[in-house]
Design a protein that fits this description.
The protein is an alpha/beta fold. The chain has 3 domains: 71 residues, no CATH class; 56 residues, no CATH class; 175 residues, von Willebrand factor, type A domain (Rossmann fold). It contains 10 helices and 9 strands. The strands form 2 sheets. Strands 3, 4, 5, 6, 7, 8 and 9 form a 7-stranded mixed sheet that branches. Strands 1-2 form a two-stranded antiparallel ribbon. Helix 9 links the parallel strand 8 and strand 9. Helix 5 runs parallel beside helix 10. The longest helix has 21 residues.
């Protein structure tokens, strides 16, 4: 019975994953899942799943292939118009929410977008400790007593000493029969990784553009957390100046100043130099902007910083340009023209929420 339940549960989980995969583009673009994110689980509304159930009809009231009737006669036997009748008091059908782990969500993302696993390049590793029960000992706490092994030892002792009575079998363990689970502490290496997010918060970046960034970073986080157990995230905002902030500030603040993108790249370089040696860390940097920079001189400074300081140090640098009514949008073209040939530089144009799906594949599809 238990095996059948497990099989049914596993089949139901596969149906859920299939439905999420089928509608992944919608989930990525509408942000529904972010509001339902817990520490390790995501709640997902799935209106498409209908669980099988029995419905009992009215005996003697006719139906398909039963009783007398003429063509066009309603099967229910009622002649009323659709929608007619009194207000009902029965509950309707509701959206069903199911839960997936972030790991399951990342697996679905990988399958649907065909994302390759990342090959870590950092040499330093975080070492976590885990206790594993590996054997049996004659001493230990009572909470770890192994009852099956204890009774086996008692039975062996009673047989050897002739105390065991086949007609009246009774096994009574004594202190020397007690056996306990023993454990061993093992170390598990985990690759280091850091994500540095940068975003333009000048007056031309409105809430709609920030929501696109919020959605995209959620999916980038989900994938990189799946690839790296030790993951650190840092946040930089900039207008004419750059500042490091926490996550909440990153997505909520908006300034009225101009835009000098090089200030963010300078701060990114400082953070890497101070805290994340490239030979010890896997470094990911993502910058989101509407492409409206202060001057072409600053564009050239940004290109120099990327070429000489940042790209040689990072696994991947992703620039995502969102569309804004007030932005010129020139920056992505400038980078494309001046930094062509750098394999770890990914440029992605994100005009609206529907484009997030393809942008994620742009950023993560090379397995860097």
């Amino acid at each position: 019975m238990l095996m059948h339940i497990d099989n049914d549960y596993n089949r139901f989980r596969q149906i859920i994953k299939g439905k999420v995969k089928e509608n992944l583009r919608k989930y990525i673009s509408n942000g529904e899942m972010i509001g339902r994110k817990g520490r390790d689980l995501i709640s997902i509304p799935l209106p498409q799943i209908d669980l099988p159930r029995f419905r009992f009809g009215d005996n003697g009231r006719g139906g398909a292939g039963q009783g007398e009737g003429e063509p066009g006669t309603p099967l229910s036997g009622d002649d009323g118009e659709a929608g007619a009748g009194n207000a009902g008091n029965e509950p309707g059908y509701h959206l069903r929410e199911v839960e997936l782990t972030l790991e399951e969500l990342a697996e679905i993302l990988a399958e649907e977008l065909e994302l390759p696993n990342i090959e870590p390049k950092g040499k330093k590793e975080i070492v976590s400790e885990k206790d594993r029960y590996t054997g049996i000992s004659k001493v230990g706490p009572e909470s770890l007593r192994h009852f099956k092994r204890t009774f086996r030892e008692a039975l062996k002792r009673q047989i050897i000493t002739g105390q065991f009575n086949m007609e009246k079998p009774q096994i009574v363990p004594i202190r020397e029969d007690f056996r306990y689970r023993s454990w061993k502490t093992t170390t598990q290496p985990q690759s280091n990784a850091v994500i540095i997010y940068m975003m333009d918060v000048s007056g031309s970046m409105w809430d709609e553009q920030k929501q696109i960034v919020r959605l995209e970073t959620f999916w980038i986080d989900t994938w990189l957390h799946y690839q790296y157990k030790g993951l650190v995230t840092r946040y930089i905002i900039h207008d004419a100046q750059a500042h490091e902030v926490d996550r909440d500030t990153f997505f909520s603040v908006r300034e009225n100043g101009g835009t000098v993108i090089s200030t963010a790249y300078e701060l990114c370089k400082q953070i890497i130099d101070q805290d994340y040696p490239p030979d010890e860390w896997n470094i990911y940097a993502f910058h989101f902007s509407d492409g409206d920079n202060w001057s072409r001189e600053d564009n050239r400074l940004c290109a120099d910083l990327l070429k000489n300081e940042i790209l040689p140090r990072v696994n991947l640098f992703g620039y995502g340009q969102v569309e804004s009514t007030y932005g010129s949008g020139e920056f992505i073209d400038f980078l494309d023209e001046n930094l062509d040939g750098h394999d770890n530089l990914i440029l992605s144009y994100i005009p609206d929420k529907e484009a997030i799906y393809d942008s994620i594949k742009d950023f993560l599809g090379k397995g860097k």
